Amino acid sequence: MLLNSALILLGCAVRHASASEVYNTFDGDGFPACNAVAKVYRPSTVDEMVTIVKNASAQGIPVRASGNAHMWFDTMCSDNPNTIIVKTDAVNGISDLQMDGNTGSVVVEAGVTFPQVAQWLQDRGAALGFTLVNWNITLGGAIAMGAHRSSLREDSQVSAAALAMDIINGKGELVHLEKSANNDTWLAATTSLGLLGIIARVKISVLADYKVWANQTTLDEEDVLNGDMFAQMSPYVTANYWWWPSVKKFHMRTYGVLPVNASGNAFQSTFSVTPVEGALALALLNGGQNSSTANFFSADTFYALWSAPNFHETVLNLPLISWPVVGHAYDVLIGGLYPNELPEWDYDLHGHTLELAVPIQQGPALLRRVRELFDQSAADGQAVTSTYRSGINIKLGKPFDSFLGQTTERVGNVTADWSKGAMMFDFPSFVPTTGDRHRFNEAWYTTLATTLINEFPVRPHWTKNTRTIFGQAVKNLDQDSLRRFAAVRAQFDPDKTFRSVVGEIIGVV
Ligand SMILES: Cc1cc2nc3c(=O)[nH]c(=O)nc-3n(C[C@H](O)[C@H](O)[C@H](O)COP(=O)(O)OP(=O)(O)OC[C@H]3O[C@@H](n4cnc5c(N)ncnc54)[C@H](O)[C@@H]3O)c2cc1C
Ligand SMILES: *[C@@H]1O[C@H](CO)[C@@H](O)[C@H](O)[C@H]1NC(C)=O
Ligand SMILES: *[C@@H]1O[C@H](CO)[C@@H](O)[C@H](O)[C@H]1NC(C)=O
Ligand SMILES: *[C@@H]1O[C@H](CO)[C@@H](O)[C@H](O)[C@H]1NC(C)=O
Ligand SMILES: *[C@@H]1O[C@H](CO)[C@@H](O)[C@H](O)[C@H]1NC(C)=O
Ligand SMILES: *[C@@H]1O[C@H](CO)[C@@H](O)[C@H](O)[C@H]1NC(C)=O
Ligand SMILES: *[C@@H]1O[C@H](CO)[C@@H](O)[C@H](O)[C@H]1NC(C)=O
Ligand SMILES: *[C@@H]1O[C@H](CO)[C@@H](O)[C@H](O)[C@H]1NC(C)=O
Q1: Residue 396: what pLDDT?
Q2: Which atom number of ligand 7 is nearest to the Cα of residue 479?
Q3: Does pTM surpass 0.85?
Q4: Full 3-state SS string of 31-70
């Protein structure tokens, strides 16, 4: 048994042990998730993951799990270069689908991605609910970090779909947890930040397969900035806005459920880019590094492009040109790449982002404050606008009780009413490949983050913010939730094998 384990570990070590290396995000070189790690393992079973953790923790070696590194900043690990990464993408079994009428459950392993499980379910007449993320992200990674889609009506944090979990704790033991309301262990496990251990398996709730319509309306900026966001968005199973500040417009995207026999074969892709588009966008956006005018030009161009549906028809593979569109739940809510196209980052189109949640009632006020800051940048002769291909994404979240969730109603010193849900301000921006890679008016982005954190009770998304932003936002988090989370963490991982800089900054390890 020991010899076997040793051989497995030797076999799956991807890199040599002695030299430390950078572990990058999906954006590749220049975008570290961990600045220095000793080794990246790529096991293919839960048992192998258990063996790796046992061996590492016995030697005091820090461990972090990683799915597809679909995160933005150097916040995955702690700063200990002895850290090893357990890359989970090959631990991707799906089993035990059980349906009872319109609802059911399925068991997935850590490294299963959303497209993978959605396809598997669709082949068997089932589908994910609205607790999903529309890209190649693992279920383990999404559940660990509190990732979410966008809905005020339905649960939309991925971990809200979890019914049970197996977590490999700091001793390398597999701990089984069942969903249980008001239980501190469950409240910690549903946004664990990877600090309880490696999420190895999750049982999630699913639905019978269905179709979805997607529709898009264009609104004037003032209709959202001075509107009733809850009334506008709460009727829909999924809904979000894209803000186009250069033209003072919003795209309002809404989704609804249709029977599985409805006609339509639409397939969505937010990230699919042709080689020609990729090269043009890179030239256009790099041109904006020192030129506000160039940024406004590209923003207006992207706005015009995104007024049409980013959907194709799957049978003839032709673009759909008018709203609404109809297709399978998987094709419309997750989708993927079109043939012969790649995601933007494969054309050197890289981004930074910032994501902060506020109570939904304060959403319009937060956006008005951002508008003031945009106007201020123009008054200062350094006008900033959105430089991302799909605009600024405004998402929504129904309350979900988890100690570290962005939409929990738990409040501490900074009180606020989160009972109607949250608005997430998700502001991606292009990072030039030229010069020192600064963005146009880089200082403005710092002012934006600091202003919002100081003036609103915002909570950070756990993979879309810098270390500095986490540090600034700690004051908005509920101290009681942090204390109780830390107590559960200490039971699972007393020796802090799974520590991360995020956990250190918020004071839970
Ligand atoms: C194109 C794109 C679109 C996105 N869209 C959304 C969105 O709509 N909504 C949203 O909320 N987020 C979104 N995200 C963020 C994404 O959901 C999270 O960053 C998610 O954690 C990434 O999952 P991953 O499997 O790639 O994990 P990684 O990026 O590899 O890891 C993320 C973190 O989770 C930990 N981790 C990973 N796997 C496990 C595990 N099995 N057990 C314990 N800890 C683990 C890692 O140590 C790390 O700290 C998006 C990201 C990208 C790149
Ligand atoms: C245990 O971990 C050490 C350090 O990462 C590694 O060198 C060794 O090969 C591992 N031992 C086994 C039995 O896997
Ligand atoms: C998605 O991720 C898996 C690994 O989890 C990988 O095998 C696959 O190629 C990826 N698909 C795309 C479209 O990037
Ligand atoms: C909470 O859940 C854990 C893990 O499932 C269990 O061990 C514990 O007994 C539960 N606590 C209470 C108070 O029910
Ligand atoms: C789609 O939006 C348009 C307005 O842009 C509206 O007239 C139409 O009724 C909507 N369709 C659906 C199915 O919601
Ligand atoms: C879908 O099926 C239902 C019954 O199962 C039927 O009433 C309806 O007419 C069908 N719709 C279409 C578009 O085929
Ligand atoms: C919260 O308020 C209490 C009492 O006023 C104070 O002692 C504590 O320092 C505050 N905590 C934070 C994190 O601000
Ligand atoms: C912008 O200016 C910086 C510093 O002057 C320079 O290094 C960089 O190459 C310029 N970018 C472009 C696209 O010209």
Answers
A1: 98
A2: 13
A3: yes
A4: CEEEEEECEEECCCCHHHHHHHHHHHHHCCCCEEEECCCC
| Binding-site residues, ligand 6, Cβ < 6 A | 259, 261-262
The domain 211-476 having CATH identifier 3.40.50.720: the answer here is no
52 in Cβ contact with 68 (< 8 Å): no
Residue range(s) of every CATH 3.30.465.10 domain in the chain = 94-208
| pLDDT for the residue numbered 157 | 98
What's the pLDDT score for residue 12?
A: 45
Average pLDDT, consecutive stretches of 10 residues, N- to C-terminus, the chain (509 residues)? 42 52 96 98 98 98 98 98 98 98 98 98 98 96 98 98 98 98 97 98 98 98 98 98 98 98 95 93 96 97 94 91 97 94 95 98 98 98 96 98 98 95 98 97 98 98 98 98 98 98 98
d(CA 452, ligand 1 centre) in Å? 24
Delimiting residues of CATH 3.40.462.10 domain(s) in the chain:
211-476
* CA 138 – ligand 3 centroid, Å: 10
Q: Using DSSP, how many helices (H) and how many strands (E) does the chain show?
A: 15, 26
pLDDT at residue 9, rounded to an integer: 45
From the CA of 479, how far away is ligand 7's center (Å)? Answer: 8
So what's the pLDDT on residue 18? 52
* Residue 326 CB contacts under 8 Å (≥ 6 apart), including other chains: 211, 212, 213, 214, 258, 262, 263, 264, 266, 332
CATH number of 94-208: 3.30.465.10
Q: What are phi and psi of 295, to 5 degrees?
A: -65, -40
Residue list, ligand 1 pocket, CB within 6 Å: 26, 64-71, 76, 88, 110, 133, 135, 137-138, 140-142, 144-145, 147-148, 194, 198-199, 271, 463, 500
CATH number of 2-90: 3.30.43.10
Residue ranges, CATH 3.30.43.10, the chain: 2-90
CA angle 47, 207, 359 (to 5 degrees): 90
Question: Distance, CA 485 to ligand 1 centroid (Å)?
Answer: 20
The Å distance, Cα 320 to ligand 6 centre, comes to: 24
